[in-house]
Amino acid sequence: MKTNIKISGILSAVVLFCLFAFKPLEEKKVIVIDAGHGGHDFGAAMHGFQEKVISETIAKKIKALNKDSNLEIVLLRDGDHSMELSERVLMINNLKPDLVISLHINASKNTETNGVEAYISLNKEFYEKSKESAEKIIDEVSGENLFKRKIGEAPFYILKNSNCPAIVLEMGFLSNNNDRVYLTSETGQNEIATKILGAVK
What is the distance between the alpha carbons of residues 64 and 147, in angstroms, rounded to a whole number? Predict the structure, then answer.
């Protein structure tokens, strides 16, 4: 009887060991950051500042700030070079990420227009997840320095053709003085990058 109890105890210990020792590792969450424009395509350009530079700088900061081993940040454009939209989408769909955030800077003829806004696709399969992520990011990034604008729907190429939740994030208006000062400052860029990273964890 004692032998049976002892064997049973050993077997239980072995089973528990196996359960913990061979527990599958948590899958990494993969977020693709697409820095808009690049190369000969400057994007919005005003007062000596270029959208392509600001979006790339913030994208790199998001990656550098990430210390979470369960979160992988992938940059589509890691340098100042041109990329076709089809090339970006091909990379995205090969990576099969949990979310794509395409970073952009807005501009308007009305210099009073300001704030951060996001766009998502009407793609039903990813609509809810895209909207949920966009709301979280907009809520996080907006605040004292950036006015909270709308989440809209748009037929942008990356939104329509990415086989995953996707967002185009317009981080502010280069044409608005307050937004421009914030977007082009080291402090502003660090804060935006930190807030985007916090929203996707």
Answer: 26
Structure tokens, 31: 């977020």
Beta strands (DSSP E) in 57-122 are 71-75, 99-106, 116-120
What gap in Å lies between CA 200 and CA 194, rounded to an integer?
Answer: 10
**Model pLDDT for residues 182-191, shown as the tens digit of each residue:** 999 999 999 9
CA atoms within 13 A on the CB side of 78: 10
Entry pTM: 0.87
Torsion of Cα atoms, 87 then 93 then 95 then 98, to 10°:
130
Structural domains of the chain ordered from first start: 27-200 (3.40.630.40)
- Of the candidates 23, 50, 22, 19, the one whose C-alpha atom is nearest the C-alpha of residue 37 is 50
